Amino acid sequence: MIGKLTKSQIEEVLDKNRLARLACHYANKNYIVPISYVYDGRSMVCHAVSGLKIRMMRENPAVCLLVDEIRSFTNWRSVVVWGEYQEIVEERERLAAMKLFVDRTIRLKISETAIPPEISGKRLHPRSPGNIKPVIYRILIQDKTGRYESPS
Question: I need a surface site. Which of 2, 53, 82, 117 has the fewest CB within 10 A?
Answer without folding.
Answer: 2
